[in-house]
Amino acid sequence: MDPGPGSSTTHLNWGNVGLAFSFILLDGFLSTTFGLGVGSSLVTAAVRCVVQLSVVALVLQKVFETNNPWAVAGMACLLNLMGTAETVVNKSKKRFDHMFPSVLIGMLGSTIPVSIIGIRFAMSVEPFWKPDQYIPVVGMLCGATISGIVVSVSYVLKELYDNRDKVEMYLAFGASRFEACKPIARDALRLALTPNINQMSVIGIIAIPGMMTGAILGGSSVEQAARLQMIIMFMISSCTALSSIVTTILALGVVVDNEHRIRTDRIDTREHAVYRARNWVLGRVADAFKSAARGAAAGIKRVVGKRDGEGDGSNAPERERLLG
Question: Residues with Cβ < 8 Å from 52, sequence gap 6 or more?
Answer without folding.
Answer: none
